[in-house]
User: Fold these one by one.
Assistant:
Number 1:
Amino acid sequence: MEQKIIDLLKRSSLSITDSRKKILESFFQENSALAHADIEDYVGEDFDRVTIYRTLQTFVDKGIIHTIPTPDNAVLYALCKDSCSAGHHHDNHVHFICDNCNKTFCLEHVVVPTVHMPVGFAASQIDMVVSGICNYCNATT
Amino acid sequence: MEQKIIDLLKRSSLSITDSRKKILESFFQENSALAHADIEDYVGEDFDRVTIYRTLQTFVDKGIIHTIPTPDNAVLYALCKDSCSAGHHHDNHVHFICDNCNKTFCLEHVVVPTVHMPVGFAASQIDMVVSGICNYCNATT
DNA sequence: AACATTTTGCAACATAGTTGCAATAGTGTA
DNA sequence: TACACTATTGCAACTATGTTGCAAAATGTT
Ligand SMILES: [Zn+2]
Ligand SMILES: [Zn+2]
Ligand SMILES: [Zn+2]
Ligand SMILES: [Zn+2]
């Protein structure tokens, strides 16, 4: 894991720092999307709030993580797949929010469908967020 | 307009107050979605910030307005159509955010498409937000 | 090891949203 | 219309969230 994280940072031409390693670790540890507060909990007292904000912004810029819009307007982040790079995200998958466990997942294999726009409107990006019960919660209740 | 607003409040069994009338007026005046700050600008010094928050929450509860999730996590509100009622919203239309004029619109006639979920996931609500250039901006540039 | 460049922590600030409570306004009834 | 009851509002204080400037510390390069 340590090596995987270092490689990812090098590939993105970012210097290897303790905070970046720890924050990336939190994403690899969890398989769901994380809010700023989740990461703050994970890293504990080790790093300043401001450092986390700036690191997340850096990761978004470099194509390492992407943000997820949610109906309740919390900011969530999740790892990108390899196809994303600095300045160019290609995360056109559906996001799923579980109403039971409250976790958010990238449905990597569910592509956002296109939709027919009214005359005059030109679409450049489409976000789709589905709420419901996730597979884990469905299996255990 | 005054009468239309009063009827809407009565139909929702809400008492008729100056702040509710003024805030509803702002929605009928604009044809796009509004953020809390927009409404604060519209009503000026007449009402407290807290009153606006509480009034918007009441309107959402009563099925008069609905919230719109946005990629940049701003909270937006827009008028519902008649089919919404207290506790039951049916705003299953696509929302459009213009990258140029920065306004957000309800595309009332564009229904959110269904999408096939992976095994184990049960969808109960789907939000779709499209970004691009709106018809007004396309016509004037 | 020494240097130049990034990154971090701190403090201070800005904005957004919430809560409790007393004062006020609205509604229904006499 | 006046009264009493209830709902709404304003204020103050508070929490949460996010940003900025700058000096100190860490990183990468020679
Ligand atoms: Zn991405
Ligand atoms: Zn995703
Ligand atoms: Zn509605
Ligand atoms: Zn809408």
Note: The first strand of chain B starts at residue 34 and ends at 35.
Number 2:
Amino acid sequence: MQLHKRDVIDAATAILDNFGMADLTMRRLARELAVSPGALYWHFANKQELLGAVADRILQPALEPHVPPGWRDQIADGCHRLRDALLSHTDGAELVSASFAAGQSAAMTEIVTRLAAAAADAGVAGSDAELAARTVVYYVLGFTADEQSRLQWDAAGATLPDGQSVLTAEPSRRFAFGLTVLIEGLAAHGDSELLATARDDLTQRRLG
Amino acid sequence: MQLHKRDVIDAATAILDNFGMADLTMRRLARELAVSPGALYWHFANKQELLGAVADRILQPALEPHVPPGWRDQIADGCHRLRDALLSHTDGAELVSASFAAGQSAAMTEIVTRLAAAAADAGVAGSDAELAARTVVYYVLGFTADEQSRLQWDAAGATLPDGQSVLTAEPSRRFAFGLTVLIEGLAAHGDSELLATARDDLTQRRLG
DNA sequence: ACCTGAACACCGTTCAAGT
DNA sequence: ACCTGAACACCGTTCAAGT
């Protein structure tokens, strides 16, 4: 039976979920698929490209189109869905972070584009909108990688008697806090930017 | 001649600067020091611990005490010094990011503590101050790792005719932009928090 | 206390040769 | 077109034995 890209990504995702990133090696993956390591290099140029494909698979659920109106909810919603997608797979945040940094995730590019559009709606001027989007993404990836490593660390160790408040509720509240800080910052910046544009507009009209 | 921790960190930093993170391996480091690989494990428990020590060395210049008064300048200054330290070594941002995520950098812990104190001054309530500090740190690490990888990528390739505006001035402006968004967000949050505290205070006084 | 030598159990990637 | 076999050039870590 022929080996397809899909099978490879499926098997890679399974290894990730069951054993984590450290075990997601080309050789191990080949063994699981019962092919020689070299076979993988017919379908993927290198390991980075393969990891990028796994990242895109993980991010699929976060890619449904924006439902909410209003840039604040668009950013908040996008970020929550991103976090949820990352938390759905072992070491998800770490994997996606690495793929994003290596520029190997088309899904992350799409997410940044959407967040940039929302930032533009907030009043952030042209070229800064993508930067604003990246700033938000740095937060989500950093926070979630941190959260996930702690989560996985004491998933093996001490199971706290309270299985909810500290382990799931608190992180979500904390995540929302940082998100609010960013959104309020964008609102403040956007407002002053819109003011400046309006001022220039008036000046233009007076001179024209 | 006896091998000391200092010598190991020195040699590791030299490899990093001259060849980058991919070449910073235990075996290569041992070769450079003319010892066997096993010797390193007398001085460091594992590679992560050694990388943490290199991270702390890199961060040394960012650890001079806060000079400016006012929480805004304290955050802005701290972040600029952090970025400068990271950019002073090849793959500096990547190395410090990894060490921070692994909880192996005492210097990063110190930096977070200082930023948290500034956030508290901004009016961010107790336990959220550290989270605010981490949020800022996620931004600096994310932005700088990104900046540095692009910088190093086209340091080998196309040397743009303009050697200043896009390669150094623009990144600095862009870095400041994201920082302002975060600081304004903290200001907005801090103000509303202070208002709430004041309101509670009044209520207490009315009831008491 | 500090280090060597040698081993253990792996890596990612390439590429002639096969079908 | 797709894959095997085997090699190349490495890894991090451990640990008995030496000084």
Note: Residues 2-3, 35-36, 38-39, 42-43 of chain A lie near DNA strand D (CB under 10 Å from a C1').
Number 3:
Amino acid sequence: MALEKALDVFWEHGYEGASIASLTEAMGISGKSLYAAFGSKEELFLAVLQRYEQGPGAYARKSVLAPTAREVARTYLEGAVRAGTQPGRPAGCLGVRAALAVGVTGQAVQAILTDWRAANHAALRERFQRAIDEGDLPADADPEIIARYLTTVADGVSVQATGGASAKALQRVVDVALLHWPPA
Amino acid sequence: MALEKALDVFWEHGYEGASIASLTEAMGISGKSLYAAFGSKEELFLAVLQRYEQGPGAYARKSVLAPTAREVARTYLEGAVRAGTQPGRPAGCLGVRAALAVGVTGQAVQAILTDWRAANHAALRERFQRAIDEGDLPADADPEIIARYLTTVADGVSVQATGGASAKALQRVVDVALLHWPPA
DNA sequence: AGATTTCGGCATCGATCGATGCCGAAACGA
DNA sequence: TCGTTTCGGCATCGATCGATGCCGAAATCT
């Protein structure tokens, strides 16, 4: 699928670093077809982001469905490792890499990805609040700080993977992060 | 100092996102003076990176001088929080933000920053190896994994700060990360 | 004060950016 | 087989990229 190829380009080079020429070459279509199908570079990126959420990034949505808070945390962090170290695909997380620093033309996409990461955090926080209500986590646990800790580690995993850290090394980091539960 | 202004621009917008026009405007000098003083955009960035290491990023170099491994970890993570949430300055870490995803013109700088982060990791690992030799850490501790855990959390702190997380929230994340020591 | 040097403002270089119009070839239906 | 339609290759748009040369004003030295 052409969208999957575009995903790899955005994932590897970020929003502004991915040129239309590099996108059309990877997708195997012409510039005219690209604009006829997606309208603009930004709309193409939005379509790619949806694709990412349902593919490599699906672990975030699935993790909150785990039966226990402990399993939520484990599936979330291990999903981040797996998605960020797939052989033959770009390293790290699209949402972290693509727009951490941008010029003037990328500010809209940067805001979108910032919201995207914030939504991930909010979903985890709400899941841990439910765990408290169900007695799965202690009543004095703080769902905000637990969720923040997990998203911070996951973001760090993405940066480490981008820098070339191996899946094995990052899995050990995740094991360390999950040694004590609840973490606070 | 003009270098400090250039640092803020690269810090906020990354290497490719920082245009010469935005740099000269922030530095208050002309393009001609910029090239006379630094030679090229890439050489200017290298000078900025050195400045960053001795200013906001100095915590990394200082932390390994702490007397105990525990204090090394604490000063390192708290330094990452403080440097990444300074009011009136760009959020996060220059080394993480500036070149996580780049086009063709930024690959050299991307490699430089990847090496820079790897050097941080190596310095921590060597410090923890020394702690093991001195009996400050258990003989069966793994300096590689402990250092990797800390750099991963610090990288995550940088991403979180870029996304708008507060210093207080990130300090609590660091407290959680340091609750158990050694972490593994 | 006059001569010399230094440096910033401006215009501009070739290249590339995202985006679009033109045009010929291929595919489809009658 | 002919007429119609769709779509990709190509050239090009204005804007901006990093980088440079020109030229006049300000500062320095004798």
Note: Chain B has a mean pLDDT of 96.
